[in-house]
Amino acid sequence: MQDTDRGIIIKNTPFSDTSLISMIYTEKRGLSSFLAKGGRRQKSPFRGKIESGFLVSFVYYRGHSAEMGVLKEVEPIETYPEIRENITLMEGMYSILWVLEHSPPEEKIFILAQEILKRLDTEGRIEILPYFFMKFFKIEGIYPNLFRCHVCGEKSVSCFSTMAGGTMCRRHCTQNDLPLGEWFNLLKFIVRGHLPEMNDTNEKGFRDMMNVIIEYGEFHSGSWFHRLREILPSSIRP
Ligand SMILES: [Zn+2]
Question: Is the domain covering 83-231 a CATH 3.40.50.150 domain?
Answer without folding.
Answer: no
